[in-house]
Design brief:
It contains twelve helices and ten strands. It is α/β, with parallel strands linked by helices.
């Protein structure tokens, strides 16, 4: 079997340099370079930008999982078996102190959409022989892939959305009470996300309390969907009252305006320009995202937007075997 290789580039971002969390602005861009790669090949190569789930970053998919393949081994196998043409895979690092990224611009986290669409795409186009681009991801990465692809059909010709956040009333609302309870532990008679956040980052074992991760996730979503530089709570507004838990409808409306199931109507003309829209989800998704994916599928059908949709047995995690479906489809559509 021919082997590709991994190249690591140290990249200094201009748009992240002044990010509000003081997260690193010099980060690695990890690139899988396929076997036989040629800078002078007149056909060029499809470059796939991979967006990791919340709580992770691109380099993590290179780690060895004894029950699965690394992404490098998977790419080598798919190319060797001629299920994929030789493709470039770009693993980005958009991790933030809020636990991850939704890959959109926010005054509370930083300009991560611009980081990907302007800086990373520009860098990869300059360094490699790129003819087409796709964006794919899982969970928050699936959300990012769908939203970035939907907003930038001039940049991305294909989207692969694996279990991407959608139908926010199903995937986020059930966690609001848990998050509020965690914040209240730090704030006395009302929730104090800022105090909790500071305490969280001082803990030697951040995985000890599972509800902490729920609280971090809701904080991260607030930072992306309802940023407010004037807010005393880490630069974002919360969609529920931090004392009573009552839903703040104005803030919740800001969240749902970023829900893919609501966004597709606005961007349907862009979506019609995309060569491949791929969406899948496990039928037992623990965050109810299969419901959001079904809604998204239904709306795309009604709009007459060509796409691939599939549900598979399983939950939200450990879904990398599904890349055996999406990557060949990206290759088939873009390498014609």
């Amino acid at each position: 079997m021919q082997q590709g290789h991994i190249a690591t580039h140290r990249f200094e971002s201009k748009v992240l340099k002044s990010n509000p969390l003081s997260d690193p602005y010099v980060r690695d861009i990890i690139v899988y370079v396929p076997p036989g790669y040629s800078r002078t090949d007149s056909k060029g190569y499809t470059a796939v930008i991979y967006l990791a789930p919340f709580g992770s970053f691109g380099k993590a998919v290179l780690n060895l999982d004894p029950f699965s393949e690394t992404i490098e081994a998977r790419m080598n196998r798919l190319i060797s078996e001629k299920k994929c043409s030789p493709m470039i895979l770009v693993l980005v690092n958009c991790f933030t102190k809020f636990g991850g990224s939704q890959y959109i611009n926010s005054t509370a986290t930083g300009m991560y959409e611009d980081y990907i669409t302007d800086e990373i795409v520009g860098f990869i186009d300059e360094e490699y022989n790129v003819s087409n681009r796709a964006v794919m991801g899982h969970s928050s990465g699936g959300y990012g892939a769908f939203v970035l692809g939907m907003r930038h059909p001039d940049i991305f010709q294909a989207i692969a959305d694996h279990s991407g956040d959608s139908a926010f009333e199903y995937c986020y609302l059930p966690d609001f009470p848990k998050a509020l309870e965690v914040y209240t532990r730090s704030g006395g008679d009302h929730g104090d996300p800022k105090k909790w956040f500071e305490d969280f980052w001082q803990k030697p074992n951040k995985y000890q309390d599972r509800d902490d991760m729920t609280a971090l996730n809701i904080l991260g979503m607030a930072a992306h969907y309802s940023p407010n530089p004037q807010s005393p709570y880490l630069g974002c507004d919360f969609p529920f009252d931090l004392k009573t838990g009552e839903i703040n409808q104005d803030v919740w409306n800001r969240w749902t305006s970023s829900d893919p199931t609501r966004m597709v109507a606005k961007y349907q003309d862009n979506l019609k320009k995309i060569k491949l829209i791929y969406i899948d989800c496990g039928t037992k998704d623990e965050f109810n995202i299969h419901l959001g994916c079904r809604i998204l599928h239904s709306k795309l059908q009604k709009m007459g937007i060509r796409h691939f949709y599939e549900e598979f047995p399983g939950g939200h995690s450990k879904i990398s075997h599904r890349y055996d479906v999406s990557l060949p489809m990206i290759s088939s559509e873009l390498d014609r």
